[in-house]
């Protein structure tokens, strides 16, 4: 007689819990080579589990709420990781928020967006999305990035690329206002702007391929999603010494470690966006990409502003010249991508080349 497997004993349920246990055992320890590799394998499993549970929640609540859940959940934990590293890092961590947020913006607006467009176009030739929603997302990301990452380079309140207390307070409040206004627009006032569209341009309210999960299943997946995300960020932190050793061995600057960790933290959103693109739901991919960039700035800067009350040392937020050029090109190319409401493989390749340029210059400044 064949045994019936309990629905709770699936790999997507076991892996997040196991990853959390591995995190508890390995936290604060220096790992030799073999345990570091095993932790990395568990980290990959936690990423895959997070994608699965994010898709379950998204299917239950519908778009654009599903994309918002994953973007905010990842960003809240990312903020906690940044603050923790700043507390323990001293003056060397003065530019950590800037480097992390800028890496997140480049990865989401070029990496996730480019990969989604390329995968979608390879399968469906031309991908379509709502230009009104994507344009609003890009405009909000651009404004947040300029207010929080560009202006500190040019203000004269304090020496160096940093805000004065009053300027930092204004940037934090403005970030919250912009992010709150966007969430209200996305979920209430103009929700249809952020729904997937059919080839003829009509919004698609629901995915026709499967019935949505029950409320209980969605709540279980939401809890497991949070557990998996905590494990992803925590294990990325555990792996950071090994990553630092590898980065030093190949001669890259230590700031490149932030890029690697950002890639790990954003891996669940990247995989979820890729899957949505292959199902011809590019608008979901755009919601994930731009929504993650907005949450990364709009939640991180206010959190860092509050944390700076207790943190000692400068807070360097302003981008350097090379970073500002990359941001400007990303905004222009992003605008040309989203305005038509349709894209081909070429746009995907262009965005991925911009990501490659960012990563190359981060490794070879």
What does this structure look like?
By secondary structure, the chain is an all-alpha fold. It has a single domain, classed as A middle domain of Talin 1. The chain has 12 helices and 2 strands; from the N terminus they run ααααβαααααααβα. Strands 1-2 form a two-stranded antiparallel sheet. Helix 1 crosses helix 2 (33-61), helix 7 runs antiparallel to helix 8 (256-265) and helix 9 (267-278) runs antiparallel to helix 10. The longest helix is centred in the middle third of the chain and has 35 residues, at 215-249. The protein is globular, with a radius of gyration of 20 Å. Keywords: Membrane, Transmembrane, Transmembrane helix. It comes from Petropleomorpha daqingensis. It is a multi-pass membrane protein.
Taking the sheet with the most strands, its summary is: 2 strands, antiparallel
Can you count the helices? 12
The CATH class assignment is Mainly Alpha
Helix content: over 70%
The stretches of 5 or more residues where confidence is low (pLDDT under 50) are 1-6
Q: Please name the CATH topology.
A: A middle domain of Talin 1
Radius of gyration: 20 Å
Structural class: mainly alpha
Assigned CATH architecture: Up-down Bundle
Can you say what the CATH homologous superfamily is? NCX, central ion-binding region
What global shape is seen?
globular
Order of strands across the widest beta sheet?
Answer: 1-2
Fraction of residues in β-strands: under 5%
Oligomer: single chain
How far apart the termini lie comes to: 64 Å
Total count of strands: 2
Order of helix and strand elements from N to C terminus: HHHHEHHHHHHHEH
Mean pLDDT: 83
């Amino acid at each position: 007689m064949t045994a019936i497997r309990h629905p709770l004993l699936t790999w997507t349920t076991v892996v997040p819990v196991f990853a959390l246990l591995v995190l508890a055992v390995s936290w604060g320890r220096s790992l030799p080579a073999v345990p570091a590799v095993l932790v990395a394998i568990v980290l990959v499993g936690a990423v895959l589990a997070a994608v699965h549970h994010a898709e379950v929640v998204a299917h239950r609540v519908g778009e654009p709420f599903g994309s918002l859940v994953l973007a905010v959940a990842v960003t809240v934990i990312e903020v906690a990781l940044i603050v923790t590293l700043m507390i323990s890092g001293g003056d060397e961590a003065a530019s950590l928020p800037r480097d992390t947020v800028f890496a997140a913006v480049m990865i989401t607006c070029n990496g996730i967006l480019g990969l989604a467009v390329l995968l979608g176009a390879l399968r469906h030739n031309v991908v379509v999305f709502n230009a009104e929603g994507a344009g609003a997302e890009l405009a909000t990301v651009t404004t947040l990035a300029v207010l929080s990452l560009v202006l500190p380079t040019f203000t004269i309140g304090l020496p160096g690329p940093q805000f004065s207390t009053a300027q930092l307070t204004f940037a934090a409040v403005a970030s919250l206002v912009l992010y709150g206004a966007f969430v209200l627009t996305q979920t209430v006032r103009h929700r249809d702007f952020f729904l997937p569209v059919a080839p003829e341009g009509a919004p698609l309210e629901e995915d026709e391929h499967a019935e949505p999960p029950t409320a209980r299943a969605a709540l279980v997946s939401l809890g497991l999603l949070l557990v998996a995300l905590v494990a992803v960020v925590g294990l990325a932190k555990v792996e950071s010494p090994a990553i630092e050793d590898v980065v030093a061995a190949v001669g890259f600057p230590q700031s490149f470690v932030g890029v690697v960790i950002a890639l790990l933290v954003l891996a669940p959103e990247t995989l979820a966006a890729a899957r949505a693109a292959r199902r011809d739901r590019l608008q979901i991919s755009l919601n994930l990409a731009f929504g993650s960039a907005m949450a990364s700035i709009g939640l991180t800067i206010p959190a860092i502003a509050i944390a700076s009350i207790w943190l000692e040392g400068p807070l360097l937020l302003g981008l350097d010249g090379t970073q500002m050029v990359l941001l400007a090109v990303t905004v222009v190319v992003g605008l040309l991508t989203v305005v038509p409401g349709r894209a081909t493989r070429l746009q995907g390749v262009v965005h991925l080349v911009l990501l490659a340029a960012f990563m190359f210059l981060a490794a070879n400044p």
